[in-house]
Amino acid sequence: MPDPLRLIADVATRSGEAALALAGRERVRLAVTGLSRAGKTVFLTSLVANLVAAGQGVGIGRRTLPGLAATDGRLRAARAIPPGVEATPRFDAEAHLAALAADPPRWPARTEDLSTLSLALTLRRSGFYGQVLPDREVTLDLLDYPGEWLLDLPMFGQGFGEWSDETLARLGRGLRAAPAAEFLAFAKALPPTAPAEDSLARRGHALYRRFLLTARDELGLRFLQPGRFLNPGPGGDAPVLWFFPMPEAARSSPLGELMERRHEAYLRDQRDRFLDPVFRRFDRQVVLVDVLGALHAGREAFEDTAEALAAISATLRYGRGWLDLLTGGGIARVAFAATKADHVPEVSRDSLASLLSDLVDAPRRRAELAGAAVTVHPVASIRCTEEATALHEGRPSPAVRGILLENGRWATVDPGLVPARRPPESFWNAAYFEMPVFRPPGLEANGRGGVPHLGLDSLLQALLGDAL
Ligand SMILES: Nc1nc2c(ncn2[C@@H]2O[C@H](COP(=O)(O)OP(=O)(O)OP(=O)(O)O)[C@@H](O)[C@H]2O)c(=O)[nH]1
Ligand SMILES: [Mg+2]
Fold first, then answer.
1. Residue 338 contacts residue 298 (beta carbons within 8 Å)
2. Tell me, what's a Pfam family for it (predicted)?
3. What is the DSSP string of 328-346?
4. Is the pLDDT of residue 20 over 70?
5. Ligand 1 atom index nearest CA of 36
6. Sign of CA pseudo-dihedral 44, 283, 224, 148
């Protein structure tokens, strides 16, 4: 049920926006969805740098996004809207770009807080209107945040009991069981009268958190909740975080009640801090997935990524009903992107996109059924490699070549075949291959002339082309 007050506010904003559209001022809100390390910050930095360069319309900038139709001369300018009085931190595209262009170049650090940036795109109207009406201005709203926080979205639909049962069941299975054993033993030993003692709460929380860190950093798992246990954000560690999933037998104890209150307070805090500002209202979504990373982390990590993305998308509203036309709710266009596509040679990039299609099968179908326009792309936000040939069992095979971040040396890497669907069991038995981290390429004019990429332009055309 939509909240009536929110609905009225949305309708009001929407009619305001319709008036703005008539006056040539429109707003597009883009939600970037991606689990931790999927490539959100790098994607946003490249998007900003390339749109700004394309808007300059001169030199290399003009050629930076050839597949985006508006860069055929209609895009007159793209610039970051200067800071106003926003309470949210600003996405510092310039600082990220400067670090990428530095010598030696640096990738952005893990994102630790929500940040936003709006781009103003000035566009000449097409056809006859271009001569008689003034330029249009489209504002593109962008957001960056820690990927771990996304897994909080499915938590909003559950109470403490349901979340605890589901989480504890998951902890007992597969790869999770060994690193979770100490926490599970602790939780199961809690008596039905467990006192609400600080030391007990802190011990349970510390054990559970230690498990989450191991699961993320050593096992490559992604369905890990709550997000702030892994990435606490600017608030740092605080009592609101000191809870853990509890077995039913101990949930009505004083300790159980304390855990439940903290769980509730956590969700309230995340709603204000993250959910409302980020996911309340947007009309385009790009879902970034590090498919190769998931593939190379093994079968369970791959399945875990698929499950996490499905659970997140189940909480979002896709498509456009008549109500959505009024309120602007619902996501009208979704682009799925397999990121870091420069890790594989060109011949493998179609397979990469099909593999992603398969991995996000559930969310993709959900969005399509609801009427959203859905596309799938292989993308490298920053292209770090070139095509090369490697010798594979004595025969030449396509590979990529780039500079390794760790030692600054050139290396030719043959990532092997990329399966076009979820791979069969035999695939997982082969030795796992770990993708190296490449050094970002030296950027001309500190990136101000645009950033080399693969497929960012076709992705933007599919996602935003109709609005530009
Ligand atoms: N070769 C290559 N590597 C990339 C590309 N995009 C991202 N990476 C690598 O992936 C890492 C993670 O990218 P980020 O953009 O920081 O990931 P994120 O989604 O913002 O991660 P969190 O902030 O932890 O949620 C980078 O440090 C790079 O090593 C790309 O286009 N090409
Ligand atoms: Mg980031």
1. no
2. DUF463
3. --SB-EEEEEE--GGGS-G
4. no
5. 25
6. positive
CA of 133 relative to ligand 2 center, distance in Å: 40
Helix (H, G, I), strand (E, B) or coil at 458: helix
8 has pLDDT over 50:
no
Task: List residues near ligand 1 (CB under 6 A).
Answer: 34, 36-42, 107-108, 110-111, 146-147, 339-340, 342-343, 380-382, 384, 437-438
Nearest-10 Cα torsion for 250, 255, 259, 260: 70
Residue 2 has pLDDT above 50, yes or no: no
Distance 437 CA to ligand 1 centre (A): 10
Check if the beta carbon of residue 256 is closer than 8 Å to that of residue 250: yes
Q: Whose CA is nearest to atom 14 of ligand 1?
A: 39
Helix (H) or strand (E) holding 347: none
pTM, two decimals, is 0.92
332 within 8 A of 464, measured Cβ to Cβ: no
Nearest of 106, 96, 109, 111 to residue 439 by alpha carbon: 106
Place of tokens 């950033």: 451
Q: What is the pLDDT of residues 261-309, one digit of tens each?
A: 999 999 999 998 888 877 767 889 999 999 999 998 889 999 999 999 9
Structural domain spans, the chain: 4-107+112-145+282-384+442-467, 150-274
Residue located nearest, by CA, to atom 32 of ligand 1: 340
User: Could you give the CA distance from residue 289 to residue 37 in angstroms, rounded to a whole number?
Assistant: 9
Mean pLDDT of the chain, nearest integer: 89
Identify the three-state secondary structure at position 468.
coil
Q: In sequence order, what E strands does 11-123 have? A: 25-34, 75-80, 115-123
The answer, yes or no, to whether residue 210 has pLDDT greater than 50, is yes
State residue 179's pLDDT score.
Answer: 98
Q: Which residues make beta-bridge pairs with 400?
A: 387, 413
Atom number of ligand 1 nearest to Cα 437:
29
The CA–CA distances, whole Å, from 365 to 92, 198, 334, 360, 415 equal: 35, 46, 11, 8, 29
Q: Whose CA is nearest to atom 6 of ligand 1?
A: 39
Q: Quick check: helix, strand or coil at residue 19? A: helix
Could you tell me the distance, in angstroms and rounded to a whole number, from the CA of residue 124 to the centre of ligand 1?
34
Task: Determine the 3-state secondary structure of 122 from DSSP.
Answer: strand
Question: How confident is residue 25, by pLDDT bands cut at 50, 70 and 90?
Answer: low
Looking at domain 4-107+112-145+282-384+442-467, its CATH architecture is 3-Layer(aba) Sandwich (3.40)
